[in-house]
Amino acid sequence: MPVDLKESENSEMQRDMLVPCEEAKEALENGEVPVGCLMVYNNEVLAKGRNEVNQTKNATRHAEMVAIDQVLEWCHHCGRTPTEVFEHTVLYVTVEPCIMCAAALRLMKIPLVVYGCQNERFGGCGSVLDIASADLPNTGTPFKCIPGYRAEEAVEMLKTFYKQENPNAPKSKVRKKEGHKC
Ligand SMILES: [Zn+2]
């Protein structure tokens, strides 16, 4: 837990990590890698998302990308400039953003990311690459990361998911959608 934060900020971040955890749980129940997130702009929740990779059969539909799209939709609906909104938006996410998402967050100029556990396999905020703070020309702006909020819950959900992946483990009940026939 970061020690340089005021007590009030600390509990606020614990609270704001609740929704991402619920989103991650929903992902888990739907056979997705359990990652969930929330985007807050000036104390207003603009978006929440979870992994939709298997459901959409689209490897880029990570929770963060889903939430970015929702914020863009909100901006469009409310006649707001996305750049101005993203520059004042905090992302709460259960797992350290991957390299792809970290790059997207830089490009959207999100200044702060509060996350749960590390992402040892794909992490873009220091675990694999440090996209968050690297000096990358023409790739948005670096962002600040605060790790460690509700990390144990995030890890437990990931463990449960990867246990299900084991072919000897009982299959999860994943509802499959009928796609369009070509
Ligand atoms: Zn990602």
Name some characteristics of this structure.
182 residues; alpha/beta; 5 strands; globular
CATH class group? Alpha Beta
Mean pLDDT: 91
Assembly of the depicted chains = single chain
Number of helices: 7
CATH hierarchy: architecture: 3-Layer(aba) Sandwich
Structural class: alpha/beta
> Mind telling me the C-alpha Rg?
16 Å
Largest sheet: 5 strands, mixed
Structure summary, number of beta strands: 5
Strand order of the largest sheet: 2-1-3-4-5
What binds here, in terms of ligands, is: zinc ion
Task: Give the overall shape, derived from the CA principal axes.
Answer: globular
Q: Assign the CATH topology.
A: Cytidine Deaminase, domain 2
| Helix-strand string | HHEEHHHEHEEH
Tell me the span between the first and last alpha carbons: 51 Å
Query: Low-confidence parts, pLDDT < 50 over ≥5 residues?
Result: none
> How helical, in percent, are the residues?
25-40%
Percent range for β-strand residues? 15-25%
Number of domains: 1
Architecture overview:
- By secondary structure, this protein is of the alpha/beta class.
- It contains 7 helices and 5 strands, in the order H-H-E-E-H-H-H-E-H-E-E-H.
- Helix 2 runs parallel beside helix 7.
- Zinc ion is lined by residues 62, 64, 97-98, 100-101.
- Keywords: Hydrolase, Metal-binding, tRNA processing, Zinc.
- This is tRNA-specific adenosine deaminase 2.
- One of its GO terms (cellular component) is nucleus.
Explain the layout of strands and helices.
Blueprint: H1 7-16, H2 18-29, E1 36-41, E2 44-50, H3 53-56, H4 63-78, H5 82-86, E3 89-95, H6 99-108, E4 112-117, E5 144-146, H7 151-165
Parallel strand pairs: 3-4, 4-5
Antiparallel strand pairs: 1-2, 1-3
Helix pairs in contact: 2-7
Bound molecules: zinc ion (ZN).
Zinc ion binds next to α6.
